[in-house]
Amino acid sequence: MSGAFDALMRFQRETEALSQVMGRLGWDQETMMPEGAAEQRAEEMAALAGVLHRRRTDPRIGEWLAGAEAPDELGARQLAEVAREFERTARVPEELASALARTTSLAHRVWADARATEDFALFLPKLEEVVDLSREKGAALADGGDAYDALLEDYEPGTTAADLDAMFGALRPRLTALRDRVLGADRAIPSLGRDFDEAGQLAISTDLARAFGYDTNHGRIDKAVHPFSSGSGLDVRITTRTEAHNPANCFYSTIHEVGHATYEQGVARALLLTPLGRGASMGVHESQSRIFENQLGRSRAFTGWLHGRMEAEFGDIGTDAHGFYGAMNAVRQGYIRTEADEVNYNLHVLMRFDIERDLIAGRLAPADLPEAWDTRFEWDFGVAVDKPSNGCLQDVHWSEALFGYFPTYTLGNVYAGCLHAAIRADIPDLDDHLAKGDPMPAVLWLRERVHVHGAAKEPAQIIADATGRTPDEGPLLDYLEDKFAALYGV
Predict the structure, then answer these.
(1) Do 251 and 192 form a contact (C-beta atoms < 8 A)?
(2) Number of helices and strands in the chain (H, E)
(3) What positions does the entry give for Zn(2+) binding (predicted)?
(4) Pairwise CA distance, residues 327 & 190, whole Å
(5) pLDDT (tens digit, 9 = 90+) per residue, 43-56?
């Protein structure tokens, strides 16, 4: 009956609006909240998490679903998404949902302090709480199945750890072989050997955000320890960070987060504040941020324009456009995932994927995380970890119970590889635009084929429809090998 469908959609609209408020509390916590407000904010977020949990398990949802008739194909997709969320949320007790919200709110601040002071022991008690609660949530969602797969479903519906294992297993040999060739190459790549003031970096950062289509009338840019994007529809906010000696961190953090934000801003208005009014999955989300950051933002054409913008802001930066392209794409062994080059990046993700599965499965105790991390890192990268902020304390994800999120970064890179190949085929003069600092032809291509759909299609289907092929790792690997073989002469 249409009455049941309409009542359900009205109810869901209020739930989605409250969920946006919850997200805004999280944004404020990481950007503007007074440090002394942490305990009260934890209670606020726990209370709102309880409200949302009660709404998402309201018995009337089941009654409406039983009586609703979808008016069209989109309505059927709305009902399917509501039913999926209703069934999953009902498996998690309200007390557990509230405890997770309260604990992660507190754990985030403790993680930031532990990272700043290089003190893993400070973070360990909160990490143990988060892992225990996440294991409990995973077990409740799995209902006898695999707990990690159940958590992964929150970020990439329809994908299992076994699926990712197969894909990652195909990626690893060619990635490591390419890395070894590049690192063994006899070719010097320049670096920017001076500091750049924060005001200049942030001015360029704002130009970059607007160039990639970020609507600042419906968003804002702030600073955070770990850059992120928050919100959807008409209020989508991003953060970035600055380092005096590494302006690329600011520029590409901004472009990356703008990829997320532009996706959310591009969802069709008719879908906003509905169950489909957001990105289809974190894998599709990461495909947008990674293609913005890398295939477009680090291309030879675009870095040529960025070199000119740098010189306009800072004067002589010590290298020409060719050297600047090399500096923005240099392959170097390093500790930090978010600063990793395109060749090494996915190897960082694959390591985290394995570690967090072990944490959820109980094969790894939180107290043993530093040793496990350091051992695995040295095995994978040949470098000993020197301090916790360069090791297991570098990422915010586990303080926020985001188990299952990490693998979507590499899945997003795979999707981005497929999308980039299709964009290049459809827009053969793209480099002419990028050389003028104008990536909008590619952004508009993505908006039409990816962004407007929100979650109205399954993630892999969105990529397949946009590119005309089932997504696989081939285009990404071909792109990486072509780019870095040319840059390093290998």
Answers:
(1) no
(2) 20, 3
(3) 256, 260, 286
(4) 5
(5) 999 899 999 999 99
Query: Which residues are 229's β-sheet partners?
Result: 238
Binding-site residues from annotation = 256, 260, 286
Tell me: the pLDDT tens digits for 179-204?
Answer: 999 999 988 888 888 899 999 999 99
Whole-model pTM?
A: 0.92
**Of 338, 345, 392, nearest to 121 (Cα)?**
392
Rounded Cα–Cα distance for residues 245 and 49 (Å): 41
Q: Reduced to 3 states, what is the DSSP secondary structure of residue 239?
A: strand
Judge residue 51's burial from the number of C-beta atoms within 10 Å of its C-beta, 0-12 exposed, 13-18 middle, 19 or more buried: middle
Per-residue model confidence (pLDDT) at position 191: 85
Catalytic residue among 153, 156, 257, 339: 257
**Running DSSP on this structure, what letter comes out for residue 296?**
I
Binding site membership for Zn(2+): which residues? 256, 260, 286
Contact (CB, 8 A) for 254 and 221: yes
* Residue 1 pLDDT: 53
What end-to-end distance do the CA atoms of the chain give, in Å?
A: 64
Active-site annotation holds for 39 = no
